[in-house]
Write a structure and sequence with these properties.
16 helices, 630 residues, alpha/beta, 37 strands, 7-stranded mixed sheet, homodimer, extended, Molybdenum Cofactor Biosythetic Enzyme, Chain A, Molybdopterin biosynthesis moeA protein, domain 3
């Protein structure tokens, strides 16, 4: 087995090398003529001039009568003047001004007189109430310079100016080739080892947002001849090609070799994380980009390289990211080997913009679904401290950040249900929820980084939940406990309980899966171990940590562990058996200054609603009135 | 002829009445299932939960060998350990972990040994380099609540979670019925009296931006029975219907009557300007909106009413407009009868956001093409003063405002050409140009409202252009004159010069069209009148004012006037004859502090480029080295 090393080229050099070559080979948009009525959103290829005036004739601007203004001169309240039918012609708004007339008297200003006459009390000036030729647009005027994005109003102006077809930049056709022996089309029931091909859907959505047309080629196996044939086909049909996966240097990573066989590999390996194993090449005067298989890596390369490739095609200035400054909620360690891209969620707490790093794994597409921004950490930076002021590239609507309820703490699916019910009720704010465990909730609320947090912290000396922790961490007050739910914690085991687990003491003889440090369930585990006289090091799997109840359940269902502590609803989803251990008090810690915040109030109103209650009942394991029994 | 009066209902009441009824009749989105790969941009109809875990099996996170971690325990640099082929199985990234293994050793950490063995210098922990089941997404986890716009990443997460179809809100189908006897489909050669139908293109573009599907019905004549039939057809096929034009109370305005015959007219006439003659109705439990025929009026009603109707359909919170504060460049008088909507262009001059009102006519679609923002003037406000701080609703990218070169002053098509050439050269900034005349340029530069302005101001005492004006208005310096062009001014007349005009003195005996006060060409006209001993009041049409050279040319071509002063290029566009009068010096007044501004420098670099020179030569009448001869 051989291992090859990639380059580790800093991003700016990688861009220079790649985009320099693309410029050299004349990579740019062609022009096509489209019907103006279909041109909205397109980009003009050259300046567009009005072909006719708008209006193109002298038009009445009002409903009324057209006259020669001269016949009205002298009319006033004191010297009314009467127009005979020979003096006027009735016109509606938009009618051409009849020959011999040069003004319009509004219908409101006409007083009926006998024999079809009208009396008027004021004169009109020449061209009064007339839209003269060219009032809006004059023939020959430039309506839009080249490179203009055609808005609806611009399309209207073009049509008004007699421009019925317009030369626009042809959209680039971007071919996407998903590759890999293990890759299968999206399915709800993939076989073991099958990887669902979703990257092309992500890329397509991004590319269409950048004004590209997308053609997704069939999934292609890791076969050099096949891959080469598909790439040649794609190059003949597209303006640029993305090869998804196979961009690294493993046994079946052929992207680089195949690009080299058809053109030139300019860069293989960029000093960014995630996203390092990218290939930037050129073949047939077209860009060919090998994207990493891991979705988050690929998205970073899409944002950093592919987006700018499309901009280069259109010869448009890359859109500068909107930058916001906030306070980092959690320390981040970073490598000196790479520029690092950390997805973050954002929310405003009081006057502070709180910046919470999301999970950093390259395979964790879910982290992107929650990302409000991207923190870019310079290659020369070893890390950032909690509380540090940081600049973040915005990925969401800035207005949304102002209207965000930040809920953190212990994982419980009920928070997602409340979030859904709030949306359903038409709440004008959003809920950002993260799982940092019960202790994390205390630190976040204390640090002003969350409005509220779910906690279930057992005082192992008194057996009472939460209260003593609040007393300890908020000795001067400032935080309130708001009633949440009682919930049953228990040991989840495979259907039929194959290991015959009866009580917590049995965890010492099977493979356990634990929760992360700071989680209320972890504290409960430690308490139960102590109570049963079991040392943590004697528990197989004590260091195998998951962040959520469903995460624990998933590992038991998969056979990675035999049991773990969690809540009934998680066990039910995975069809696991459940051995109840205790009922605990899951409450919400709220910064007192936000108790009256309308978002916080709405959150609790929904939590106490009938609909939420019935959802919790359906999920099972919640006790809406119960006290703890541990 | 009868005149009916409309209501003048304040906008909030109009909305309450209209949206209240729509809520009462249950106007809301239906649900449809779509393939997740096609769902990008759609809105979830209900919460979506993961159907499977991602990964759905324990997968190798690296290229390397899978092992049972226990066999590696004890390996270190001091105590290397050798794995026999029985101890490992080769895996690539993404491969399922073989039975009996629970960790992966990276290829980089394997040292080749004889007989297919590998030596390792470190142990691996159980589950090290393994993506355990559910690492990214756990089955049963809520991936998105209802009402979520599906981003590319969310679509990826849904597919990863085994969700191959997703319930989304059906897009509303909005029918547009263009009406009017005088309306014709877009054409480059409309007959006199024909009005080009471009409003539906504008509406379609706006609606598609609000996530609606659009169906444009054929242009329908002002015939009650016909209109009623088309509206019935539209109601049967669409979720809401817009009737374009005929919404007022004139002879052929049937919209209100026809809506009433099929349902209920809730509002007819809103206290907004432009946009007053709108009809808001309901028929067959669907909204029917009569839009004014004037495009600007219609766009305001689209923004204020139709957009929110679509939001109501989707049950989404209307997007709050982004508000910026700036300084008003010009006084605005407003009526107490209406809330007024004034389009403005925006640009940053130093630290000041300059807000320039655009032409306010309801028929002036071109004003919307230049609009960066909308100034909403309260009904109770009689006007706003120049220099007043105002709040503006943003209609453009806020970043664009920071990168705007503001050019104002005398109208000359060369500014548009420079603007186009700058775009073509890939300039990262935009040019906002307005025509306020040469004197307007002086006031704007002096007031810090423009970077530079084109002027051609004749000192009638010395015959020298521009210099004395700069001296007078900038007695303490602060503004520089930068060389522009010489250009020939002359009298434009119809082909063949039917009125036999020979010199400027002839304007006294024909119909003249003038330029607006403050225009350099107006000052030239006044100078020439004085020189020829002609009193302004003796010039027929002296008060008929246009803002541009092409505007003057258009009126001469249309026969509204016999002659007017202007430049050769305008005469050529309209195929007019041109009687040269003098050559003048068109220069640029620049606020000295911006002389080194890269945008200003780029502007002049392009102005002096070969390409610009050849364009000016093609246009005719420009003298690139000449001095004035007046």
């Amino acid at each position: 087995m051989k291992h090859r090393y990639l380059e580790n080229l800093p991003l700016p050099q990688a861009k220079d090398r790649f985009f320099g070559r693309l410029r050299d080979v004349g990579f740019e948009a062609r022009t096509e003529a489209v019907d103006t009525v279909q041109a909205c959103g397109r980009i003009t290829a050259k300046a567009v001039y009005a072909a006719i005036c708008a209006p193109h004739y002298n038009a009445s601007a009002m409903d009324g009568v057209a006259v020669n203004a001269a016949v009205t001169f002298g009319a006033s309240e004191k010297t009314p003047l009467t127009l005979t039918p020979a003096d006027y012609i009735v016109v509606d708004t938009g009618d051409p001004l009849p020959d011999g007339t040069d003004a319009v008297i509004m219908v409101e200003d006409l007083i009926d007189a006998p024999d079809g006459c009208y009396t008027i009390l004021a004169a009109v000036r020449p061209w009064q109430n007339v839209r003269q030729v060219g009032e809006d647009i004059c023939m020959g005027d430039m309506i839009a310079p080249c490179g203009t994005v055609l808005t609806p109003a611009l399309c209207g102006a073009l049509l008004a100016g007699g421009v019925t077809t317009v030369d626009v930049l042809k959209k680039p056709v971007v071919g996407i080739i998903p590759t890999g022996d293990e890759i299968v089309a999206p399915t709800a029931t993939p076989a073991k080892g099958d990887i669902i091909e979703f990257n092309s859907t992500v890329f397509r959505g991004m590319l269409e947002g950048w004004d590209a047309d997308v053609r997704v080629f069939p999934i292609t196996k890791d076969d050099k001849a096949l891959l080469r044939a598909v790439l040649e086909e794609a190059l003949s049909r597209c303006d640029m090609v993305l090869v998804s996966a196979g961009s690294s240097a493993g046994r079946d990573d052929y992207t680089s070799e195949i690009i080299a066989s058809l053109g030139t590999v300019l860069v293989h390996g960029i000093a960014i994380k995630p996203g390092k194993p990218a290939v930037l090449g050129e073949a047939r005067q077209k860009p060919v980009i090998g994207l990493p298989g891991y979705p988050v890596s690929a998205i970073v390369v899409m944002e950093e390289i592919v987006r700018e490739t499309v901009d280069l095609y259109y010869a448009r200035t890359p859109k500068a990211p909107q930058i916001v400054e906030g306070v980092l909620a959690k320390q981040i360690v970073s490598s000196l080997k790479y520029t690092e891209y950390v997805r973050v969620s954002l929310g405003k707490i009081g006057d502070t913009l709180s910046v919470s790093p999301l999970p950093r794994g390259a395979g964790v597409i879910s982290s992107f679904t929650k990302a409000d921004g991207m923190l870019v950490i310079d290659q020369n930076c070893e890390g950032l401290l909690a509380g540090e002021r940081v600049q973040v590239r915005l990925l969401c609507d800035p207005a949304a950040i102002e209207q965000t309820l930040i809920v953190t703490g212990s994982h419980d699916p009920l928070i997602d249900e409340v979030r859904d019910l709030l949306k359903k009720s038409g709440a004008a704010f959003r809920v950002n929820s993260t799982h940092v465990g019960s202790m994390g909730a205390i630190y976040a609320v204390k640090g002003g980084l969350a409005h509220l947090g779910g906690i279930h912290l057992l005082d192992t000396e008194t057996g009472v939940y939460n209260k003593s922790y609040v007393k300890k961490y908020f000795p001067d007050g400032g935080a309130a406990l708001v009633k949440g739910v009682g919930r049953v914690q228990g040991l989840m085991v495979k259907k039929g309980n194959p290991c015959g687990i009866r009580s917590f003491a049995d965890v010492a003889r099977v493979r356990y899966v634990n929760r992360q440090r700071g989680a209320g369930t972890r504290i409960l585990c430690d308490y139960l171990l102590q109570k049963n006289g079991i040392a943590p090091q004697d528990v197989d799997g004590y260091d195998n940590e998951e962040f959520t109840h469903t995460g624990v359940a998933a590992l038991i269902a998969a056979g990675n562990a035999d049991t773990g502590l969690g809540i009934l609803s998680a066990a039910k989803i995975y069809d696991l058996d459940f051995i109840p251990i205790c009922t605990e008090v899951y409450e919400f810690l709220v910064d007192e200054q936000y108790l009256d915040d309308p978002m916080v109030q709405a959150f609790f109103a929904v939590l106490r609603s009938e609909e939420c209650r019935s959802r919790l009942e359906a999920m099972g394991g919640y006790l809406l009135e119960e006290e703890a029994t541990c």
